[in-house]
Amino acid sequence: MKNSHNAPLSRLALLCAFVTGLLWLSAGPESSAEQTLTILHTSEHHGQALPLEQRGQPAVGGMARRATLIAAVRRETDAVLLVDSGDILIGTPLSSFFRGEPDIQAMNLMGYQAMAAGNHEFDFGLDHLRRLQDLAQFPILCSNVVGHGTTLACRPSAVVRVGTLSIGLLGLLGRRNFPDTFNREVVKLLEFRDPVETGRTLARQLRAGSGADRVDVVVAVTHQESEEDLTLLAQVPEIDAIIGGHTPGFDGLRTAGASSPVEALANPGPVFVKTHRQGRTLGRLDLDISEKKVVQAKARNLPMTEEVVPDPAVHALIEDYAKKLESQTATVIGRSLVTLEGESSVIRTRETNLGNLLADLLRAEFGTEVALVNGGQIRDSIPAGPVDVKRVLRVLPFNSPTVTLTMTGEQLALALENSVSKLPGTDGRFLQVSGLALTYDPSSPPGSRVREITVGGRPLEAARSYSVATDVFLADGGDGYSMFARARDRVERQIPMRDLLLEAVRAKPLTASLSGRIRVVGPSLEASGPPEQSQPGKPPHPSAHPGSTH
Length: 550
Description:
Elements: H1 2-32, E1 35-42, E2 52-54, E3 57-60, H2 63-76, E4 80-84, H3 93-98, H4 101-110, E5 114-116, H5 126-135, E6 140-141, E7 145-147, E8 157-162, E9 165-173, H6 184-187, E10 190-192, H7 195-207, E11 217-223, H8 226-235, E12 241-243, E13 254-255, E14 264-266, E15 271-273, E16 281-290, E17 293-303, H9 312-329, E18 332-336, H10 344-347, H11 353-366, E19 370-374, E20 385-388, H12 389-395, E21 401-408, H13 409-419, E22 431-434, E23 436-440, E24 450-455, E25 458-459, E26 465-471, H14 472-475, E27 488-496, H15 497-507, E28 518-520
Parallel strand pairs: 1-4, 4-5, 5-6, 9-11, 11-12, 12-15, 19-26, 23-28
Antiparallel strand pairs: 1-16, 2-3, 7-10, 8-9, 13-15, 14-17, 16-17, 18-20, 19-22, 21-26, 21-27, 23-24, 24-25
Helix pairs in contact: 2-4, 2-9, 4-9, 11-15
C-alpha cells in the first residue's frame, strides 16, 4: 500500500526533473548567445533644430532629417539606444528665443532615452534646467555635479531596457568644463566631483545591482575634452562605451590602446565614439555582446544630407516654432554698410571688424579706457544689408550682462597672455579689444607671447590702474580669466552686450574696419592686419554713420 501511494509521486518527480532539464538546455544557449545593441547618438546640438546652412554648400542636418534616420535604424533592429551628449542650448535664434523648448519636444518625438547635461544646459539657471527636465520624457544626466543646498533636476544615473538588455547610463562633465564654461552664478550653487572616480563608483554600483537593477552594459554619455574621455576609457574598464561630446567629433571608434580611430574591432574592451556637431551626422555604434562583454564593435557616422526626407511630424513641430520666431523677430531694425566678420574660426584667432565694433560699443557705453570681449560669445557674422532681430540673436545668443571694473596694468597683461595662450587653436578665450593694442609672438611658449601693449597709444604701465568694461562671464573668471577676480571697483551694469548691439543697429547704419589692434610677429610669421593706427583717447562710436536706418 505504501509503495502504491508513492508511485504517482515518483513519476511526477521524474517528469518535473525532465521538464526542468529541457528548460535548462533551451535557456543555456540563449543566455550565452550574442546580443546586438545599436547606440545612436548626437553631439553639440546647440539649437540647430533647422538644417544647418553653410556658405556655398548644401544645407545639412536638421531634426526632421535626424528623425527619419533614427526610424530607419529602428526598423533594422529592436535593440536601439538613443542618447545625446549635451549642449542642446545656445547657438541659434530659435534656441535663444525658446530656450530649448522645441528641441526637447522634437527629442521626445524621436524617442530619446537620455541626454547628458552639458555646460550650456546651466546657462539660464537651475530653475530652467528643471523646466527642461519636466518637459523631457527622458532623464537628463549629471553624475558628477551636485547641488549646494538644492536638489538638481538632472539625475546621477539611469537604467533603461533595450531589447533583452539592461543598460546603465551615466552623464559625466569634464574637469576642464567646470567652472570655466559655466554660468558664473550657477557655479556658486554646484559642487563638481572627479569624473573618473564618479564614473568608476557608479559603474560598479550598476554592475553590482540585483534583479531589475542589475545591468548588462554600462554606457557613459560625456561632455568633456577627448583627452579626458580617453583617460576615462583607460582607467574605468567597468564602462563599456563612452559617447562623447563638447568638442569636435571624429569617424570610427577609439580604444584605450589605439592611437587613432578604427571602424570595427573584435574584443575591443571599452570603446569611445563622438559624432560630428550640430546634427551634421547621426552617430551609430553597433556592439555585439556576449556574457556581458563586448566581443565586436563597429562605429560609423550617418550623414544627414539633403537626400534624407524629413520626418513629417518633427518637421511640422519645428516649422511651427520657426513661424512663431519669424513673426516676432523678422522685423528689420537697421542695416550694416559692410559685412561684419564673426565666424568662430576668425573671431577666435585674430582681430575682426565685428570684434572691434562690439568692443568699441562696450567702451563707449561706459566711458572706460579699455573694453574686452571674448570671441566665444560671438556666434555669427552680420552680412552687409538689412539687419533684423533674428540676426542679432544669432550673433550674440547669450544673456551675460556687462560689468565695469578697475584693473592694474599687470592684470591686463595677464589677461592678454591668456587671450593668446591657446593659439593656433580656435578657443573662445581669444579677446577682441578696444582702447588698447597688442603685439604677440605665437611661436613663443604660452604665458610669454605678448611683446608689446599700448593703452590709448601709450605703453602699458604695470602698476597703473585702468578702467575696463567686459561681461560678467569674464569678470567671474570664465575661460581661465582668474586675474579678473583681483580687480577692484566692480559694478554690475546688468546690460547684455546684445542690447548694446540692438541699440546701435536701430540708431544708424553699422560700419567698422580693422585697425591693427592685434598684431602678430615672429621669425616666420607675417604681421596681420593693416599698419597700426593710433588709438583715440576718447571712446569711439563706430555705429555712427550718416544716412537712413532703413
